[in-house]
Amino acid sequence: MTKRIPESELIINADGSIYHLNLKPEHLASTVIAVGDPDRVEKVSQYFDEIEFKTSKREFVTHTGKYKGKRVTAISTGMGTDNIEIFMTELDALVNVDLDTRLPKGKHTTLDIIRVGTSGSMQTDIPAGSLLASAYGIGLDTLMAFYSTEYTELERNVAQLVQQTLDLPFRPYCIEGSKKLLGIVGKGLVIGNTATCPGFFGPQGREVRVKPAIPDIIERLSSIDLDGFKITNFEMETSGYYAMGRLLGHDVLSLNAIVANRITQEFASNTYDIVDDLIKHTLDRIAGH
Ligand code: R1P
Ligand code: URA
Q: Which InterPro entries match (predicted)?
């Protein structure tokens, strides 16, 4: 018999909405565009034919509506894989748990979740202004020390090589994103493999006033070549999305607007336009254009 999920494990607000996201099941479309910056949600929904629902709580701002007739939800997540663990678990519960009986539903619903975020490149041939889809996420965070999943041989080999290359005292992880979404939404973009860091400065090799423990992290990561598998860019969420997507059974793809090149030290002056291009590309692909 399926087990009832206790109140303490899955928190529902008094109005029936889910705790952090502040959403009820009817507020969510089966295609979700997830962005880091709460102000970016309206940059997505400005293109909707109509907005049917808006809410916000903490960093989670939601607009649901239609784009060229396709129902879409745009939500912000804030930064980091710890936020993504909450985001993905609650999104999944909205479609795969009966919030009244607190029982998992018999029939699984798969969501299409597309991250539209910014990122720094670590390869000279991927300049600022590029739009990149992540085939794999390489987690330099510790989220997957707390969940178990199956990894492919390639994923295990990449994780081991990254651990050796950086001489890390813990095991990173490598997870593939949705092949289905890569073929649809990734079409026309640079395809790369994205390192997800638990911070913007030291963990990405940036020195402001404190020297990072691995000052040459960019050189080390960008030099990895495992039978053609190269790491192309840095950001802070992709591995968490791909891990939670695999655990919960959702199609997830991370898209990256490259705003900086960390090798050539170039920073794009028009980050707004690059992100806008990525938003329009994403909306058109999911609407089938
Ligand atoms: C850091 O500036 C933030 O930008 C990137 C990183 O992943 C991190 O969240 O993504 P967003 O532009 O989606 O926030
Ligand atoms: N986001 C990141 O996490 N790193 C960058 O260099 C740019 C955007």
A: Nucleoside_phosphorylase_d (IPR000845), Nucleoside_phosphorylase_sf (IPR035994)
ipTM: 0.98
Q: How many CB atoms lie within 10 A of CB 37?
A: 17
For 157-216, the pLDDT digits (tens) are 999 999 999 999 999 999 999 999 999 999 999 999 999 999 999 999 999 999 999 999
List, for residues 40-72, the tens digit of each pLDDT value: 999 999 999 999 999 999 999 999 999 999 999
Q: In angstroms, how far is CA 217 from the centroid of its own chain?
A: 22
What residue type is 121 in one-letter code? Answer: S
Query: DSSP state, 250?
Result: -
Q: Which residues line ligand 1 (CB under 6 A)?
A: 35-37, 79, 117-118, 200, 235-237
* Cα of 184 from ligand 1 centre, angstroms: 23
**Cα(134)–Cα(238) distance, integer angstroms:** 8
Ordered by where they begin, the domains of the chain are 25-286 (3.40.50.1580)
CA of 14 to the centre of ligand 2 (A): 38
Beta carbons of 126 and 219 less than 8 angstroms apart: no
As a whole number of angstroms, the distance between CA 187 and CA 286 comes to 11
